[in-house]
TrEMBL record:
<dbReference type="InterPro" id="IPR051312">
    <property type="entry name" value="Diverse_Substr_Oxidored"/>
</dbReference>
<feature type="domain" description="FAD-binding PCMH-type">
    <location>
        <begin position="1"/>
        <end position="219"/>
    </location>
</feature>
<dbReference type="GO" id="GO:0071949">
    <property type="term" value="F:FAD binding"/>
</dbReference>
<dbReference type="InterPro" id="IPR036318">
    <property type="entry name" value="FAD-bd_PCMH-like_sf"/>
</dbReference>
<dbReference type="Pfam" id="PF00941">
    <property type="entry name" value="FAD_binding_5"/>
</dbReference>
<dbReference type="InterPro" id="IPR036683">
    <property type="entry name" value="CO_DH_flav_C_dom_sf"/>
</dbReference>
<dbReference type="InterPro" id="IPR005107">
    <property type="entry name" value="CO_DH_flav_C"/>
</dbReference>
<protein>
    <recommendedName>
        <fullName>FAD-binding PCMH-type domain-containing protein</fullName>
    </recommendedName>
</protein>
<dbReference type="GO" id="GO:0016491">
    <property type="term" value="F:oxidoreductase activity"/>
</dbReference>
<dbReference type="InterPro" id="IPR016169">
    <property type="entry name" value="FAD-bd_PCMH_sub2"/>
</dbReference>
<keyword id="KW-0560">Oxidoreductase</keyword>
<dbReference type="InterPro" id="IPR002346">
    <property type="entry name" value="Mopterin_DH_FAD-bd"/>
</dbReference>
<dbReference type="InterPro" id="IPR016166">
    <property type="entry name" value="FAD-bd_PCMH"/>
</dbReference>
<dbReference type="InterPro" id="IPR016167">
    <property type="entry name" value="FAD-bd_PCMH_sub1"/>
</dbReference>
<dbReference type="Pfam" id="PF03450">
    <property type="entry name" value="CO_deh_flav_C"/>
</dbReference>
Amino acid sequence: MFPFRYDTAGDEAAALAAAADGARYLAGGTTLIDLMRQTVERPDRVVDINALPYDDIDLSPARLRVGALVRMTALASDAGVREQFPVIAQALELSASAQLRNMASIGGNLLQRPRCLYFRDVGAACNRRNPGSGCAAIGGRNRTHAILGTSTACVATHPSDLAVALTALDASIVTRDADGERTIPIADFFRLPGDTPDRENNLGAAALITAIEVPVRPDTRRSGYLKVRDRQSYEFALTSAAVAMDLSGGVIRSARVAVGGVGTVPWRLPAVEARLAGRKPGPQLWVDAAAVAADGAKPLSENGFKVELVKRAVQRQLATVAGLA
């Protein structure tokens, strides 16, 4: 560890002022403190924002609004969320450990840094940690890395399960900075690595996430999350699939599909969705739709198995969600 200054923000204005001076926000601390211990991140000042009023869960007929400081456990256990958005509850319950879920905030979950072992090794080349230094994972140990959305600068996967569910549901991120409030569709929030992998999202440097908003639609109740990993507890996804489906009159009216563990950002699958819309559900349809789940994949030396794995995960989760009563 290293010396740093710790402050608390009593209100939003104080938090924004501190961040403008270079302070890092601290909510649950389950990511930041971990990285500080590893000296991957070395902020001179940390400001605790837990006193800010971002801890409500508000479900109306039109939308779900979740404060950024709501804990993962609280959101997963909310009765309204479990009924209207089971994919969100399931994604949260399959994340981390119970102890971490009790501490980790919803806003912090979306801002997790990559789980790449080279990112967390300060002696290794990593363009996210040290721009221009290279990407050791491309020619190194890359079994858990991305096959979609990669670049010559970075191949790290996005770690959040919740972000995959929210991507399937067309959620929005509500932020605030000195210029006021802004709402960013989740599809525009996370950035592909390109040549600037150190810029992971479109949140301003001194901005706060204040809330997440998710529209209520006919397909949100029939939804679910599948996570495929090396072990059943406290492990990140090799691949995952979030599916929401509007199925009525024996026909799929609409479907929303996103996958995790395979992309540098939560990865939406519009080609899969297009194959489902207006069709009658059935085993062959799941196979046909899932066949395009890995289109555009660029596997590395150790993770070619993910191409078939993501197809099978999508196929299985389509069948599971379609079969819900």
